[in-house]
Amino acid sequence: MKNYWDKGISFEEYLQIAKERLENPANQQEAEFKQYYELGLQRMDRTVKKYVPDEDQLKELAAKNFDGKILIISEAWCGDASATVPALFRFFEGHNEVRVFLRDSDKSLINQFLTNGTESIPKVLILDKDLNVKTSWGPRPKYGYELLMKYKADPETYTKDMFYNDLQIYYAKNRGKDAVQEILDLL
Description:
alpha+beta; Glutaredoxin; Thioredoxin-like_sf; four-stranded mixed sheet; Thioredoxin family protein; 4 strands
């Protein structure tokens, strides 16, 4: 795990890489994902500007005496990640070190933390101070998962567009609070 941690990047580096990929795609996938990078950057910018850590959650973090680190497997084009990653960085800022490991740079990490057989992101790894994995979380809060199950149960009535719209409205209103709480519950 130390190897993955050492290859992890800061939130600022994560944003910079996303901007570079948007402006100068290095390969076909980056070019095809241009609109997703653009949306992701807009959403992350909004979260960074509007996110304020919840005082009760900060007290809960302090009470848990968590001395570990947070490693997030992510990519900036991912809608779930753009809603969650900035809030996690801001919440843990000044308390616990947080880094991002770019999923597509080396699939060997995400392949250890598949979600129902898929490489879904973001995947948050909660590490102890020695970089051992205590547990993981992701790729979306419980409510987002419930919306996904609603879509999968009846995609003709609750369409993919409806699912994505409801999910983004939820993320915009919730501003990472549920994701932070679910991760706090795991500490």
